[in-house]
Amino acid sequence: MATADTTNFYANGVMITDSLYNPSTGTGTGHIAYDPNEDLGGISAPELESVNLKRTEITDYIRLRLGDGLVDVELDKEHYELAINQALIKYRQRAANSQEESFAFLKLRPETQEYILPNEVMDVRAAYRRGIGSVTGTTASQFEPFSSGYLNTYMLVAGRVGGLLSYELFVDYQKLSMKMFGGFLNFTFNKTTKKLTLIRKIPFTGVNPPEGDFEDVLLHLYNYKPDSMLLNDYQAFPWIQEYAYSFAKRILGEAREKFASIAGPQGGTQLNGASLKTEAVAEMEMLEVELKNYVDGSTPLTWIIG
């Protein structure tokens, strides 16, 4: 009779997980499990494979599949790195799973309209102020008396007065007000230079205002997943590994095709450069078709009307 594995479970059968709670600050922020830097400020935590370990794993996979140890594989370390980098580039170009939706705060500086965002940011979907935009200062209205009054008057006694319909109509009114009076900021974003340009200059009276007085704007972003996340993704990693192998095989084929044969006794040796290139091209085409079939866990396309 097989015994249950209790190393990852409590006595009551609940799985053991690691909390991100930091007792010194009382917050839930912390490291991620596959943090490649391994700098946790003295806090011990289990780590998954780092980026370097994953790259080494892919390199060994390519090397052994090409028969290294049995035959001479003429690839250097730079060739393996190039194959892995090209696999990541192709994956980010073709796969929706290489991207993630996120939110970030941006401090609006007085009389400033242009901001440079990090290189990981792919696109900016929206910029939200905290409420209906103010045209006379750096802050938007952060307190809505109707919302607070409705919560106290109607929601707490919902069975007797008011209802959710009234509050829904008010929320729609609030969204329309934000569209008309600056709650949603108009902007342009250059995907190449990462420059965000607000179509509005935030006025401020005074000289050298403290940074604590700057208004925080919420940005709705789409950004690339870092290498550490992609290489530790159990669905994306096999595809990246196979594409890197096919790319390395093509490099090897290019090199061996330069000299189709090596002179020697009994007619010399025939190299397989052409066959390696043909196999590599066919494999890469097949792998790109697999991305269209969402084998990497990407979200399929939905219905599009219009």
Please outline the major beta sheet.
3 strands, antiparallel
Percentage of β-strand residues: 5-15%
Number of strands: 8
Write down the overall mean pLDDT.
77
Amino-to-carboxy terminus distance: 60 Å
Number of domains: 2
Rg of Cα set: 28 Å
Oligomer: single chain
Could you spell the SSE succession in H and E letters?
Answer: HHEEEHHEEEHHEEH
**Overall geometry:** elongated
Q: What structural class do helix, strand and pairing data support?
A: alpha+beta
**Fraction of residues in helices?**
25-40%
Q: pLDDT below 50 for ≥5 consecutive residues: which ranges?
A: 1-6, 40-48, 133-143
Biggest sheet, strands in spatial order? 1-6-3
Individual helix count:
7
What does this protein look like?
This protein is of the alpha+beta class and 306 residues long. The chain has seven helices and eight strands, in the order ααβββααβββααββα. The chain folds into two domains: 51-98 and 228-292, no CATH class; 99-224, no CATH class. The protein has a three-stranded antiparallel beta sheet with strand order 1-6-3, with no helix packed on it. Strands 2-5-4 form a three-stranded antiparallel beta sheet, with no helix packed on it. Strands 7-8 form a two-stranded antiparallel ribbon. Residues 1-6, 40-48 and 133-143 have low confidence and may be disordered.
Short summary of the structure?
The longest helix has 23 residues. By secondary structure, the protein is α+β, with helices and mostly antiparallel strands. It has 2 domains: 113 residues, no CATH class; 126 residues, no CATH class.
